[in-house]
User: Fold these one by one.
Assistant:
Number 1:
Amino acid sequence: MAHVVTQPCVDCKYTDCVVVCPCECFYGDDRMLYIDPDDCIDCEACVSECPVSAIYRDANVPAVWREDVALNAERVAALKPAGARVTEKQPRG
Ligand code: F3S
């Protein structure tokens, strides 16, 4: 189990989520943020912080965004070695 960032994050990237994560699970690229499924402890602290409700427990991701479950894992695998961890709120845009 893990939580997943879904498509509403694309081009929003409020980054309120990263500040409350006790495990520093978030990674980012130009489009959106992703949660490391191996490090997420399902505390759900980030869920209520996202202004666009982009974060869901993997089992509860709406069907239209199911592909984001695999996308989070794939992008974290690519971004983690590059050190693209996001732990502080960032300016948008
Ligand atoms: Fe994205 Fe919401 Fe976090 S828009 S960066 S998941 S607060």
Number 2:
Amino acid sequence: MPFQDQEAPRPQQHEPEQQAQDTQPSENRAGTSAKDLEISFRNHMTHTVGRPLENSSILDQYHALAAVVRDRMMDQWLETIENYKQHNVRVLGYLSAEYLLGPHLENALLNLDLRPQMEEALKNVGLDLATIAAEEPEPGLGNGGLGRLAACFMDSLSTLDVPVLGYGLRYEFGIFRQEIVDGWQVEKSDKWLQYGNPWEIGASTSYEVCFFGHTETYNDDQGLLRHRWVPEHTVKGIPYDTPIPGYQTRTVNRLRLWKAAAVDSFDLSIFNSGDYMGAVRQKMESETISKVLYPPDEQIQGKRLRLMQQYFFTSCSLQDMLRLHCMRGEKLSTFHEKWTIQLNDTHPSIGIPELMRLLMDNHNFSWDDAWNVTQKTFGYTNHTLLPEALERWPLDLFGGLLPRHLEIIYEINERFLDDMRSRYPNDDARMRRMSIIGEEGERSVQMAKLAVIGSKAINGVAELHTQLLEQDTLHDYYETFPERFSNKTNGVTPRRWLMLSNPCLVDLINETIGTRWHKDLYGLRGLEHFADDKNFLARWRQAQEGCKSSLAKYISQNLSITVDPASMFDVHVKRIHEYKRQHLKALHILSLYCQIKNGTLKNPTPTTYLFGGKAAPSYVMAKLMIKLVCSVADLVNNDPATRDVMKVVFLPNYSVSLGQHIYPAADLSEQISTAGKEASGTGCMKMMMNGAVTIGTLDGANIEIRKECGEENFFLFGLTAPQIADTLHAGYQPRAYYERSPLLKEVMDGITSGRFFGGNSATFAPLVDNLLSWDPFFVLADFDSYDTVHTQVSDAYRDTNAWGRMSLLNTARSGKFSSDRTIREYCRDIWKLPVG
Ligand code: 26W
């Protein structure tokens, strides 16, 4: 191998054919040595990318590298499928309208344990892994928490060797790219597929999905009354499969995302009639179904295309599972024994009447037999209590698009209410509350109620959230079948969110307590022994400062703002929403600004306030909150009195890869939602794992984080959910809080008077008016408590050892928040699936 003895490997100036035969002995496409990987990389540059290495772009190198890594997954991928077939396993079908996967390359290298060899292979050809990895476009097929949770779950399911088929939509355009122009969010389309996607494999099967039309009845050859749907419009569903490798296991599961296409993409007759656009209209219309992800998070839009998206991917997925079931020689009447399907919120809940339709209309099942299979197949996870996020479809829209499904829903509802009437005689109010058909205002199909009635199991995503579901939102159903309800507190994958994001800290942890924690995060408890070890705490802090410096470098390079890595990094990153209260934090920073300016706050703890998050494009108040944060940044960052002790930065285009950069650098994790509003939160878990200390309310998973890390290692403030309910009940007067809090008064008046933002003040009038007159998320009520506790935080941060101890204990006690623990619970209690 002439190649061996060269010093610094640099791409050789060989003629291609010359290069091929002498440098490339037979390639072992599954080989994992640095040599194997180097040869494969060279071959893929030539045979897959088709460009000589020496004048290849980083994007070319990325595509070649992705091909090399994908090769190493293919054997395991086919093996996994074969293994499932051999053992005729029970399989989970995970239906989610969103998957916020994040970049694949480095995660795959971690899970396949190939990183060191790949780094060496690339060094041998004079290239750098991190530089190439940064070229990967992020598949942003999700909005926020729900989508990312689905991605963490897929990683844990593979790592725990659980047979799963993830199903979703292959949006051509994912979540928009966010730019901040003069403090305002501007949305840009996300062309993540413009250079193709090396991580997906188009599969040959496809399914037809129907829309519109009418239904009719007929008598079948046994004289039985049958229903059939006569649709008006049909589209084709084409699957694209993405391999999901587990960590340190040979399991590679499949994520199947559907693309919509026209049944016949070109109508020659229309073309010959000269209507060229008409000839491709069907193609255009059909493809719009999987064109773009709906960006509103936790706000229903009631758009028909959204329902078409939901029905499209759900129908394709169910048809696929029924086909796979029959291919294994199984009878459809046993479908629920071999398949368990989880509904990731109500977005795929149309799947319940769809399975009924497929079994009855296409496979002649009786109603009862179909219902028996259906009800025993589905599980439903609720992710939000916000009334405006609970999906309900106007009857005319729903019936026009899916006439047969509305018929089936009416019958599900009738049969259910008949049953309820026998249980609760003469309780019409309860019947109205429990009916799937909402009568208030416009009559509608309430998807959460359909999901509950059609599922064997219902769960919330954190203890408080599940309690509120059982005591409040779904109380009537909980009272009727409590055994179906359970809590499954969320979790996050420690592979991407600790091992991949924070290699420095992980090296220190491995060196200190070994690597057992890699497969069981509770193993991190071993770190508790070092809580009072000053040397260890110094090394712990050092590792964190490394992360803070690299984020500071990113901020100066991309935003030309200088932040001090020695300052406290106070991080508030998540979707922008009033209940997440980014405006509470902005108002508090303004009050600190006032106190420094008027000298009441003499020696503030130098702090860098880092914000990030996207607002739904139609959510005006959320966009105003971004403008407020950016205006506060301009004010304090440029004021000589404050700029050396306070820096405010809004990081544009918050995403999975940016999160991987931010979480390891966080000292303080802001989880300040109004108690009772954040179902769980998962960013809180990622920051805890990386040693951030949380300031938060008793909301969602914060409560369990505080329980795990110890009250003394958590900064609690604010009203509790019951106190919020009582205050609301008693009649909440936000203006009263303004009147009696000098700090708050100075800040609110400073906004309206123009003291802070000069001519821009009018801009914020809607926000100030909303807070003073209504304040639905109790920002003013919690302000003083927040200020008090934040002062404690600033003081605590000055004692580096005490803070280091709190930071270490948060990581040490974050074991519960691994998505491996969450998945184990789902497998045990709901899916009845063995864990590897
Ligand atoms: C119909 C529009 C719509 C779109 C998305 C309604 C609701 C949603 C999602 C349910 C919103 C969401 O992402 N919820 C978040 O889910 C996370 C995972 O369980 C939780 O950790 C967050 O608390 C919750 O806000």
Number 3:
Amino acid sequence: MAEFSIIETYFNRQNKNAVDLGVGDDSAVLTPPHGQQLVICADTSVAGRHFPINTHPHSIGWKSVAVNLSDIAAMGAKPHSILLALSLPQIDHAWLSDFSQGLYDCCDQFGVSLIGGDTTQSPHLTITVTALGWIEQGQAVQRSGAKPGDYICVSGTVGDAAYGLAHLGHPLQQRLDYPTPRCELGLALKGLASSMIDVSDGLAQDLGHILKASQVGASIELNDLPLSETLRYLQHEQRYQYALAGGDDYELCFTISPEHYVKLKQRNLTTNYRKIGVVQSKLGLEFTQNGLAYSLDFHGYQHFA
Ligand code: ADP
Ligand code: MG
């Protein structure tokens, strides 16, 4: 089967969103909504590196989209569409069918259209998704806006995906295979959060990016970390290793002034989030447990370790 019939069979469904021209020509064509800026990001997954080689293709499809929508959400933007660059070692119809279903399931859940891509043969299964979104001029939430006195918050629960990876077959593997991009929360934080990042390499490391970009420090209360029941039963060291240094959470970590936090609460969002600490002018990341200083030693995920 040629490249064209793969595209036709698996990646050319009717679009959900307004697109002037989608899959089938040399490029896609979109009309930006009036007064909005394009927000764009890409993320590559390599089999054996970013997911175990035998991961179910439906999950690979879902996650390839979800991790990008998470980056769009982390800017406060509304996701619109994706492009898919797919490198396949061979043509496996069962695999392609499940993969494209997973990809479209995630697109459909978040109102996103697949508008183009590229399909090639290569010895390694590699998937690059590019996501596009829109945001009102000048409204993108950056990493650099945290101010002393802001609250630090995180959505969902942290550490589940890392626990799932270390215990394949455990129910928490679902959190590894099917991350939920926090699109609703991200959008709601536009105009409210002072800074934001999505947590992909561990909460401590990713919060560290905000602190560095904003030239501030932070204090985190360990008792306030949002943990699923499985993690709450672990010993402290293990629990905090997963929660603070485990990768693949795809939760949102954001800073917000106390006044804006009140406004956020009034929105009654369906997405959970919790205050876990405060931004301070003293540089560095400190931890407390029940308000008392607590020293921790751990490492985040290193891409080139
Ligand atoms: P070109 O040779 O001009 O780059 P291609 O033959 O690679 O075009 O692609 C034909 C069309 O199919 C283009 O619109 C492209 O965006 C789309 N396309 C190719 N691969 C994919 C894919 N995996 N998913 C979605 N669209 C794809
Ligand atoms: Mg091409």
